[in-house]
């Protein structure tokens, strides 16, 4: 095989490998991309809270190494250059502990479960369902609110080979939807980019 042909083949494989795949599930527009065995799937959620716009994400580690995934590694970039970073799960939990209303939590949890359970492409083995079961035992309003937020939030941490996780990212937008822009993330050492309409 000639060097030129090998270079062309490598370029073609890289462009196919990094291709963004789009699909709709339950009214949400998902985008998926895989880089070096790490697969990221995301979709802006059609729900906002009084402080945040939400995005549903799922990450699957098909590589042979443990990968570090952090909520703060996700950002939304607007065409004017404004960048809004997702906040940590600790900040979301604290905010909901102090200010959440029961009606807001029920809408949030219902929307998240609708996105998760009606999507045939998401089958996390380390995500929402485990966190939800842990949160059911919590008592008073503030604790219940923070437990619900903890169950829904995307949790930062290490993702072992073969593991997957999911969660909602919270972007501080004063309750406005994300709108048009770019979703960017650097997960471990892999860069991902999606367009948001």
What topology does this entry show?
Blueprint: H1 3-17, E1 21-25, E2 28-35, E3 38-48, E4 52-61, E5 67-69, E6 74-77, E7 83-85, H2 89-99, H3 102-117, H4 128-135, H5 141-152, E8 157-159, E9 164-172, E10 181-187, E11 190-196
Antiparallel strand pairs: 1-2, 2-3, 3-4, 4-9, 5-8, 6-7, 6-10, 10-11
Helix pairs in contact: 2-5, 3-5, 4-5
Structure, explained:
The protein is α+β, with helices and mostly antiparallel strands. The protein has one domain (3-196). The protein is built from five helices and eleven strands. It has helices at residues 3-17, 89-99, 102-117, 128-135, 141-152, and strands at residues 21-25, 28-35, 38-48, 52-61, 67-69, 74-77, 83-85, 157-159, 164-172, 181-187, 190-196. The strands form three sheets. Strands 1-2-3-4-9 form a five-stranded antiparallel β-sheet, covered by helices on one side. Strands 7-6-10-11 form a four-stranded antiparallel β-sheet, with no helix packed on it. A two-stranded antiparallel sheet has the order 5-8. Strand 6 (74-77) and strand 7 form a beta hairpin. Helix 2 (89-99) runs antiparallel to helix 5, helix 3 (102-117) packs parallel to helix 5 and helix 4 packs antiparallel against helix 5. The chain starts with a helix and ends with a strand. The model is unreliable at 1-17 and 131-138 (pLDDT under 50).
């Amino acid at each position: 095989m000639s060097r030129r042909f090998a270079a062309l083949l490598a370029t073609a494989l890289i462009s196919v490998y990094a291709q963004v795949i789009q699909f709709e599930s339950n009214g949400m527009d998902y985008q998926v991309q895989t880089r070096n065995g790490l697969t990221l799937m995301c979709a802006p959620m059609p729900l906002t809270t009084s402080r945040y716009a939400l995005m549903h994400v799922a990450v699957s580690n098909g590589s042979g190494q443990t990968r570090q995934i952090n909520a703060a590694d996700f950002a939304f970039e607007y065409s004017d250059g404004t960048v809004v970073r997702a906040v940590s799960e600790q900040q979301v939990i604290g905010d909901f502990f102090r200010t959440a209303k029961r009606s807001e939590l029920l809408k949030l949890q219902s929307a998240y479960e609708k996105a998760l359970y009606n999507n045939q492409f998401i089958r996390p083995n380390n995500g929402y369902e485990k966190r939800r079961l842990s949160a059911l035992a919590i008592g008073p309003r503030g604790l219940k609110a923070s437990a619900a937020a903890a169950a829904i939030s995307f949790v930062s941490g290490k993702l072992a080979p073969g593991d997957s996780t999911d969660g909602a990212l919270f972007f501080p937008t004063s309750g406005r939807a994300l709108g048009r822009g770019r979703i960017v993330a650097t997960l471990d050492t892999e860069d991902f980019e999606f367009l948001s309409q």
